[in-house]
Amino acid sequence: MSLQPVSPEIITTPEGVRRLADRLSREPRLACDLEADSMHHYQEKVCLIQFAVPGLAAIVDPLAVADLAPLAPLFADPAIRKVFHGADYDIRSLHRDFGIEVNNLFDTMIACQFLGEREFGLAAVLKKRFGVELDKQYQRADWSRRPLTAGMIEYAVKDTTLLIELAGQLEGELRAKGRLGWVSEECALLARVRVAQRPDDVPLFLRFKGALRMSPRSLAVLEEILRFRDRRARQMDVPPFKVLGTETVRELAEKRPRSAAEFAGITGFTERVIERCGEEILRAVERGLAVQERDLPTFPREERRKLGGDEERRVK
């Protein structure tokens, strides 16, 4: 397969989506990737869906065309292999935003792990195998912005166009080692992951990194600060970490400042932060300190067992 770049088709109409789905339905395998705006908005959403097959690269713009129903049978078709790299987030997002389920998944990151690769991030893999370097300046771009720049479009399709060839290489190596079946099993499990819905009455501190080591009093303060942060983030339409960073929240919960003067020395507490939300933070601390001893929060035993991995992005 040629590694020459293919000028992508930008799909912004329902008819374009139908034509693309029909074209891709004739392929035995296709590469796919997503771009979202989780670094820039409170309620994250899929902003681009990229596809690549030999001779074709396409970008579907879900912000321009809401009805992506023609793509659902394509993703669900077990006869077509869908190639992703690090598919966990993509699988969850496709189902959350569009109700799309994926069958016959091949995750090249899982494949690299089963081959014993020490570096299995896509940038490292593409550099090692193809000598291709990805432009990191767009990794944290706001993909909800329109129009897309030429650089954003190039970034969006560059790695996707290489995934098919990468998958072919990895499948051959896995087959030679007798590990292809293992990867298929892992990918089948991954294809069933879904976004967990958090009930409104579940404390936010349960998903905050480091909360397990805090005292009950600090947990009470932490919960109030997290509630404030979440409300403000929703109002501003930004991710919570852009209101107050993880370390700032942790130090506030532990140090429990009672006045603006006590903000001194707390990580990330600039004059701008104090001016913007200092008083509300102090009120949150006071609410946490006012919780009666008998009502102080603690970690449920089952949560202590579960919190061994990565905490969810929304509250960390």
User: Which CATH architecture of the largest domain?
Assistant: 2-Layer Sandwich
Approximate shape: elongated
User: In sequence order, what are the helices and strands, one letter per element?
Assistant: EHEEEHEHEHHHHHHHHH
What is the CATH H-level superfamily of the largest domain?
Ribonuclease H-like superfamily/Ribonuclease H
Radius of gyration: 23 Å
Q: Kindly state the mean pLDDT as a whole number?
A: 91
Sketch the major β-sheet.
6 strands, mixed
Helical stretch tally? 12
Helix proportion: 40-55%
Spatial order of the strands in the main sheet?
1-4-3-2-5-6
Number of β-strand runs: 6
Percentage beta strand: 5-15%
How many domains make up the 3D coordinates?
2
Low-confidence stretches: 307-316
Beginning-to-end CA distance, first to last residue? 42 Å
The name CATH uses for the topology of the largest domain is Nucleotidyltransferase, domain 5
| The CATH top-level class label of the largest domain | Alpha Beta
Class from secondary-structure proportions: alpha/beta
